[in-house]
């Protein structure tokens, strides 16, 4: 009987206390981790709704296939832009959809109004935008929401000892923004947000091909080109790549050949913008912390940091060692998950 009561008590706490989540609500991807379960959702930040009823038709990978391919009866969109909420209604529907998926059923999501979550936000997120995140959380049946700078979470998730009295420079290049920070003693000392990141690189590639090849391509194809052929510095061993799109003169499908050097040229503006802001952040860094950064270098995180040769280019311009963190795509969610565990086990 005692054993049965113990099991019943655990089940009761499971539903009455609520559950704990870490949420990386990125421009490109949405990742949700649950305490004790690890990552339970990892999908593109895309949602499709019926234009008339406003009901969700699809989200994630399925909705991503609908982008730029729907009629007036369906709205398929990325509700996040430059790292923040661009369309609150669609962001609410997307997060609720995935929270219900993460909690197995609608009943389990709605049965725990005291759900707690921590979400990553870009540095310098103001109170207006933080209120939008609270509205988003309430719609997804999250009772209490904590926010944390994504770049700080990336540092934690990368294994840096952020609590030490020592300067760490972290550059988190996401889909919508690049966040740069000097972290010491468990806090951000200097920070900068740059509205140039992975999505910007895709746009620069698309626009470069329009201008130099007279070919219109989708942003999805531009991203594919970036991943397969993109580099921040010339690469001697890469082959030309054949691409297809809409001929801007003939207005019909056509193909072109691009070279790795073409993409290096296309990416110069966004890469230079990121590097210039790294240099600007270093200029604001207190001398003692600058000494630490000089010794330990710059830590690159986020999906955008995987651009070939970016570490070399940053090192050449800053004259500092550059470290590419392990698993850069998941540095933020790993950090948020560790912060969630610390919160849960400390209460």
Strand and helix layout:
Layout: H1 2-16, E1 20-25, E2 29-34, E3 38-44, E4 47-50, E5 56-59, H2 61-64, E6 74-77, E7 80-81, E8 84-85, H3 88-102, H4 106-110, E9 116-121, H5 127-139, E10 144-149, H6 150-157, E11 168-173, E12 178-184, E13 187-194, H7 198-213, E14 215-216, H8 219-229, E15 241-247, E16 253-258, H9 260-266, H10 268-283, H11 287-296, E17 298-301, H12 310-318, E18 322-324, H13 331-346
Parallel strand pairs: 1-9, 9-10, 11-17, 17-18
Antiparallel strand pairs: 1-2, 2-3, 4-5, 4-6, 7-8, 11-12, 12-13, 14-15, 15-16
Helix pairs in contact: 3-5, 6-13, 7-8, 10-12
Give an overview of the whole structure.
The chain has helices spanning 2-16, 61-64, 88-102, 106-110, 127-139, 150-157, 198-213, 219-229, 260-266, 268-283, 287-296, 310-318, 331-346, and strands at 20-25, 29-34, 38-44, 47-50, 56-59, 74-77, 80-81, 84-85, 116-121, 144-149, 168-173, 178-184, 187-194, 215-216, 241-247, 253-258, 298-301, 322-324. It is of the alpha+beta class and 347 residues long. The protein has 3 domains: 17-152 and 332-346, ATPase, nucleotide binding domain (Nucleotidyltransferase, domain 5); 165-196 and 269-327, ATPase, nucleotide binding domain (Nucleotidyltransferase, domain 5); 198-268, ATPase, substrate binding domain, subdomain 4 (Actin, Chain A, domain 4). The strands form 5 sheets. The protein has a 5-stranded mixed β-sheet with strand order 3-2-1-9-10, sandwiched between helices. The protein has a 5-stranded mixed β-sheet with strand order 13-12-11-17-18. Strands 5-4-6 form a 3-stranded antiparallel β-sheet. Helix 3 crosses helix 5, helix 7 packs across helix 8 and helix 10 packs across helix 12 (310-318). The radius of gyration is 22 Å and the shape is flat.
């Amino acid at each position: 009987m005692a054993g049965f009561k113990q099991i019943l008590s655990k089940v009761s706490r499971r539903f009455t206390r609520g559950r704990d989540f870490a949420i990386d609500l990125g421009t490109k991807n949405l990742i949700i981790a649950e305490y004790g379960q690890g990552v339970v959702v990892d999908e593109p930040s895309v949602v499709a709704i019926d234009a008339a009823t406003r009901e969700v038709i699809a989200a994630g990978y399925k909705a991503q296939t609908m982008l730029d391919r729907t009629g007036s009866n369906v709205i398929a969109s990325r509700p996040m832009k430059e790292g923040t909420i661009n369309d609150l209604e669609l962001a609410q529907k997307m997060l609720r959809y995935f929270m219900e998926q993460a909690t197995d059923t609608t009943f389990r999501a709605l049965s725990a109004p005291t759900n707690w979550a921590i979400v990553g936000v870009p540095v310098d997120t103001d109170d207006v935008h933080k209120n939008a995140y609270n509205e988003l959380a309430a719609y997804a049946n999250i009772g209490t929401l904590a926010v944390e700078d994504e770049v700080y979470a990336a540092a934690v998730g990368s294994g840096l000892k952020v609590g030490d009295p020592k300067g760490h420079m972290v550059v988190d290049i996401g889909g919508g923004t690049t966040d740069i920070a000097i972290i010491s003693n468990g806090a951000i000392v200097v920070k900068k947000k740059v509205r140039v990141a992975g999505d910007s690189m895709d746009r620069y590639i698309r626009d470069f091909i329009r201008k130099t090849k007279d070919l219109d391509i989708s942003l999805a194809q531009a991203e594919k080109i970036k991943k397969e052929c993109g580099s921040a510095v010339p690469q001697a061993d890469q082959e030309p790549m054949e691409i297809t799109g809409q001929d801007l003169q003939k207005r019909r499908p056509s193909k072109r050949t691009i070279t790795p050097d073409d993409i290096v040229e296309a990416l110069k503006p966004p890469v230079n913008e990121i590097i210039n802001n790294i240099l600007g952040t270093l200029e604001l860094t207190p001398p003692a912390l600058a000494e630490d950064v000089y010794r330990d270098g710059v830590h690159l995180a986020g999906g955008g940091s995987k651009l070939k040769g970016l570490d070399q280019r940053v090192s050449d311009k800053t004259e500092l060692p550059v470290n590419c963190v392990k698993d850069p795509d998941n540095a933020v969610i790993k950090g948020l998950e560790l912060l969630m565990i610390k919160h849960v086990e400390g209460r």
